[in-house]
Design a protein that fits this description.
transmembrane helix, membrane, MacB_PCD, elongated, 15 helices, alpha+beta, single chain, 53% helix, 2 domains, six-stranded mixed beta barrel, Lipoprotein-release_system, ABC3_permease_C
Length: 418
């Protein structure tokens, strides 16, 4: 063991003539540990929020959506969908017809983004109907005819809605709800909204409040009949093989579709959300990083007081031939040891708590506020390395002044009255 490290370790273990020095040293170790653990947990939370929101968004929505620039819809959608499905980087495509409607059950009602789908194709681009927890989405796969002469004898068409919407309507599987579409019929009295009863056959739960509270699925033919859009769709949704290049692939799809079409992708639709998460992470690191700075000040105070306590020892060592540079390194290593003990303790504590939080999910959130119903933790090894390096560097900066002061002790002055 190096001479400087040996003396530094002995100074840390030695009994104090002044108890306050030992207390401040212990507080310094605890402060570094708390700061490091807090940073690890905070970074794990922000990383977990970003990861979970991204995964749920990508499982619930398509990577790229193709729409007409004009609002008249896509009419040659079968041929167009088959052709675009063959493009490079496109792994799946599904047609859909969106419309905002009002769903009511008795005195209870709620606004819904209703989507007409072909279930077999919708499952290739979205997992929402695969997350049916009550009932089944199978009735959506049954053939529906768009012929007007079947209206009287046709059974009530099926509907799948989100879990939170079902709670809003106090509805369960088997209940009938009334769907009101603003795309009404022209009568001598003006445009009259169109009404259609639907039977709830399934309730899905994605865990993403935006979808569970305001989303529903019906058969494409039922949607075309309800919205008065014969054989027309509003969007073709795509899954691509590289979701982080969805913008570039979307441009290729747009060019292949021809003039009059435009695309959006999941990054454009959720840019503000992920930007907010990134800014929140930066602010969190800055605020909690102040704990490490406070711990570094404790190290500075502890070492300064230790230099005052060990002035006689320093003078004796220097009179025996120890160089000022060695004295400086003794106190540098002492501060380094305090920082290392605190950093290691903080890393262990932070990762253990982050693992426990991610595994047991014991912190629950309000889904209507945070979009997810629990606090996710996703600790990363890289974050631990960065936090450890920053903690050690900040702590070493705090040792510069007391170690320099120790190196400037004059043996004759320190021992004059001994």
């Amino acid at each position: 063991m190096r001479f400087e490290l040996f003396v530094a370790a002995r100074y840390l273990r030695a009994k104090r003539r002044q108890a306050v020095v030992g207390v401040i040293t212990a507080i310094s170790v605890a402060g570094v540990a708390v700061g490091v653990a807090s940073l690890i947990i905070a970074l794990a939370i922000t990383n977990g929020m970003s990861r979970d929101l991204r995964e749920r968004l990508l499982s619930s929505t398509a990577h790229v959506d193709l729409m007409r620039v004009q609002s008249d819809g896509i009419r040659n959608w079968r041929e167009l969908t088959d052709r675009l499905r063959q493009l490079p980087h496109v792994t799946a495509a599904s047609p859909g017809l969106y419309e905002q409607v009002l769903v009511s059950r008795g005195a209870l009602s709620g606004g819904v983004e209703l989507k007409g789908i072909i279930p077999a194709e919708e499952r290739t681009v979205s997992d929402l109907i695969a997350n049916v927890k009550q009932g089944s989405a199978t009735p959506l796969s049954q053939t529906a005819t768009a012929s007007a002469e079947d209206d009287v004898n046709r059974a009530t068409p099926p509907l799948v809605i989100g879990y939170d919407l079902a709670n809003t309507l106090d509805a369960k599987v088997g209940d009938t709800v009334l769907v009101t579409s603003p795309q009404g019929e022209l009568t001598p009295y003006g445009i009259v909204p169109k009404y259609q009863p639907f039977q709830i056959v399934g309730i899905f739960r994605s865990g993403f409040y935006q979808y569970d509270s305001s989303f529903g699925f019906i058969r494409l033919a039922d949607a075309q009949r309800l919205f008065g859009e014969p054989d027309v769709i509003s969007v073709i949704s795509f899954k691509v093989d590289d979701l982080y290049h969805a913008d570039r692939i979307g441009k290729e799809i747009e060019l292949a579709a021809g003039p009059g079409f435009e695309t959006t992708n999941w990054m454009e639709q959720n840019r503000e959300l992920f930007r907010a998460l990134k800014e929140e992470q930066v602010v969190t690191v800055i605020v909690i990083g102040l704990i490490v700075c406070v711990a570094a000040l404790n190290i500075l105070i502890a070492l300064t007081m230790m230099v005052m306590e060990k002035t006689k020892d320093i003078a004796v060592l220097m009179s025996m031939g120890v160089q000022p540079g060695q004295i400086r390194r003794i106190f540098l290593m002492q501060g380094f040891l305090i920082s290392v003990f605190g950093t290691v303790l903080g890393l262990v504590l932070g990762y253990v708590l982050a693992w426990a939080g991610g595994h047991y999910r014991f912190i629950h959130l309000s889904a209507d506020v945070y979009s997810i119903d629990y606090l996710p933790f996703a600790p990363r090894l890289l974050h631990g390395v960065i936090v450890a390096v920053v903690s050690l560097c900040v702590s070493l900066l705090a040792t510069l002044y007391p170690s320099s002061s120790a190196a400037q002790v004059l043996p004759a002055e320190a021992l004059r009255y001994e």
